[in-house]
Amino acid sequence: MVALLVLLLVIAGVVWLLVARPWASSATSEADDPQGQDAAPVLPVVSTSPEPDGSASPGATTSGTPAATTGASSGPNAGASGGPNAGASSGPNAGASSGPDAGASGGPTQAKTPGPAASAAACSPNEVTVTAVTDKTSYASGQDPKLSIELVNDGSQPCTLNVGTSAQVFTITSGDDTWWRSTDCQSEPSDMVVVLDAGQKVSSAQPITWDRTRSTVATCQAKNRPKAGGGGASYHLSVSIGGIDSIDDAIFQLY
């Protein structure tokens, strides 16, 4: 009788294990837990002086971002021009930030986070491809363009590059007219020299929003800066990072 009870208990335990599968929930929890997984490498976010309405622009993103050393602000880089109905054209520079005078940011595909600068040689324009990115190619009235930057080390060896906020420049032009530059009202720029592995891609962690206003160093606190024209007018976004210009402009239209 005792042997029969023991046999029944063993059978019941086996059936429970097959039905409940406790090991499955444990595996799911581990898969859902982001800790321990490699964080996607991102570029620091450029911040600017308070916007005309007095609100502050977002600060630097820290998730997956390599440690940076503080440095001086970099000067503006002019973007390529495109007329009110311009076609494609090449030009440098792309980035992202929020507010009328935002800077750049970056967030990449799943890859190893850029490491601190070591003994690798400095990146050259022949090794690194920089791309200006907008979230759309056409914006209806009331929609503001979101700008970001992508870069990839196309070389066969690791190289070092300053990807800090002091080394990022976003420029929007229309024809020969420069409408907006991220460095006009940039605040607290800093250096961040990192090592990019061969084939590594890095892009904006979050985009910068251009509010369609004209930027100058003298109008950072102005509440009524001139608004860019719509009606299908064409604008070009160019970017640069670490002194390397974007290969082409990102072209978009405003309505």
Automatic annotation (TrEMBL):
Biased composition range(s): Low complexity: 54-79, 86-109
Highest taxon above the source species: Bacteria
Location of the region described as Disordered in the Swiss-Prot/TrEMBL record: 27-124
Name under which the protein is recorded: DUF4232 domain-containing protein
